[in-house]
Amino acid sequence: MALIPEILHEYISTAYPKNLCLVSIMMDDGYPQVSPRGSVIVYDGDTLAYWDRGKGHTFETVEDGTKVTVFFRNPELGARGGNGTLPAGGVARFYGIAEVHAEDGEVRERVWNEMVEPERTSDPEKKGRAVLVKLERAEQLSHKPLSEIEGA
Questions:
Q1: In angstroms, what CA-CA distances link 86 with 9, 31, 125, 151?
Q2: Residue 127 sits in a domain of what CATH number?
């Protein structure tokens, strides 16, 4: 289990539209599929979540147990011109296992309600699903654990 430092929670959950996260999975042909996601939130201390609107390859491919990588970058957190929270370029990488919540329920509602408004507006009929990413690793660009950042 990997923990998301509390100092990063708000930055990640409100990254969009100024910044956003890239979510990556491995396709059947061995190539990674990387998709921008404005809906990524910190669900709890060791879980990220995002809303999958039901379009594209990731919707068809991600299921319970799928390995997921989430790439977060915010230059304002970097060492050059930023506050130095994430010194190597303002980057954090998260590796975890998907847990899909396609049916109405507490998890799906919480992710819907906590993601930024523009993402809800993009799926007005609420056809998508919530995907939790239970983290196994969380690291800086330099591969150092996020637990080593100051204030973690």
A1: 13, 28, 37, 11
A2: 2.30.110.10
Whether 1 is covered by a domain: the verdict is no
Encode pLDDT of 85-142 as tens digits: 998 899 999 999 999 999 989 999 999 999 999 999 999 999 999 999 999 999 999 9
Total number of domains constituting the chain: 1
Nearest to 150 by CA among 47, 71, 74, 77: 77
Domain ranges, residue 57: 6-141
**pLDDT tens sequence across 45-90:** 999 999 998 766 566 688 999 999 999 999 999 988 888 899 889 9
Instruction: Write a three-state SS string for the chain.
Output: CCCCCHHHHHHHHCCCCCCCEEEEEECCCCCEEEEEECCCEEEECCEEEEEECCCCHHHHHCCCCCEEEEEEECHHHCCCCCCCCCCCCCEEEEEEEEEEECCCCHHHHHHHHHCCHHHHHCCCCCCCEEEEEEEEEEEECCCCEHHHCCCC
The pTM for the full model equals 0.93
